[in-house]
Amino acid sequence: MSKNRKLGLTARIVIGMVAGILVGFFFKAILAGQEERVLSLFSLAIPLKAFFVDGIFHVGGEIFIASLKMLVVPLVFVSLVCGTCSLSDTSTLGRLGGKTIGLYLITTAVAITLAMTAAILVAPGQGVDRQSDASFDISEAPSLAQVFINIFPSNPIESMAQGNMLQIIVFAVLFGISMALSGKPGERLAAVFSDLSEVIMKLVTILMNLAPYGVFFLMAKLFTTLGFETIVSLAKYFGVVLAVLIFHGLISYSVILKLLTGLNPLIFLRKMRDAALFGFSTSSSNATMPVTMETVTKKLGVKNSIASFTVPLGATINMDGTAIMQGVATVFIAQVYLVDLTIADYLMVILTATLASIGTAGVPGVGLIMLAMVLQQVGLPVEGIALIIGVDRLLDMTRTAVNVTGDAMVSCIVGKSEKQFDQAVFDDASAGVKDESVDFHHLR
Length: 444
Fold this sequence. Notes:
Elements: H1 2-6, H2 9-30, E1 38-41, E2 44-47, H3 48-85, H4 92-122, H5 144-151, H6 156-162, H7 165-180, H8 184-209, H9 211-225, H10 228-233, H11 235-261, H12 265-271, H13 273-282, H14 285-299, H15 304-317, H16 320-336, H17 343-359, H18 366-377, H19 389-417, H20 423-427
Antiparallel strand pairs: 1-2
Helix pairs in contact: 2-9, 2-13, 3-7, 3-8, 3-9, 3-14, 3-15, 4-11, 4-15, 4-16, 4-17, 4-19, 11-12, 11-16, 11-19, 13-14, 13-19, 14-15, 14-19, 15-19, 16-17, 16-18, 16-19, 17-18
């Protein structure tokens, strides 16, 4: 533990990530063309892939992801109830919701516009062989009417069991409003929820200390199985998507934050390191939500009444990273199949992808389903998606880091505009840092 105290959480996660990548490369090298390779140790025959890659690395990584997801539903419900019932004027919820959703849609539109512009200039699809061994089956996206119907839960407990974020958000908001209007019973219940919120956030802190090990397992397995030959064959596409993701995450968000709040983007990005690393490692905004929530409230200074609404909503509908992939992929597939898109087609792609970010929020495999919708809208062959599936896993990690950063940026803007923002916490370089390390010895 003494060594852990000397190193910050970010440093430990980076060490775990780098170590995992190196171990992954090592296993990929020794398993090349020899999937059944066996290690002889003390007269024991240990199958390397089955024991390490499919065993230790897989189990360790999945347990880490499961432990994070375990917190999502209770964290969202409890924190959102606390935030809603603490609002002095419940009518502000409408303004808060409109402002939050509007900002998420604007950043998504900016993201896909940047992506398509970069793809048109670089032309990553020129000269690419359209043959691919991969295939893509289209899952049907729900209609707009069904999307609105599905937002409202018929069984809140079932919604929580299934992890349906939009339904949980609606129920938590209604429950919080009811508590605020219930007088003394509501106040007593609010105190219980406040204590629950503190306990859950402490559990988040404990799990964050286990993150370096979980990240190590995830990276070790990924880089053992990652096919770099596919990345080389799609180098221009991969490079354009990655470059636009980095630009949007570092530059676009910084400019928007500075223009709308006057806050220092460098402080914001520095304090977002841990959450972004979690997002990169897990490839899941939902799994990263507990860390994002702690970062937004304890490090960036956004009040819980705002963060409890903006962060879960962002994890559900904020698709900036996915929109960037869609923008580049649309132009890429059009170039591969020699289809000329008009200005009207490009505008239709921007509109469709932006609106679809809400409409397909609860659908598994949301990114590729949204891309299929966009391609169909402008008459491009959906089978072109098979060309990019091979490199999507690594790009998905970066997309999630961008999405998580966008959730926090919008939370800061909304918190600042609603006067629910602590400037002193944002400016304090040590804010939230002192709680990162947990001494487990006193628990014995």
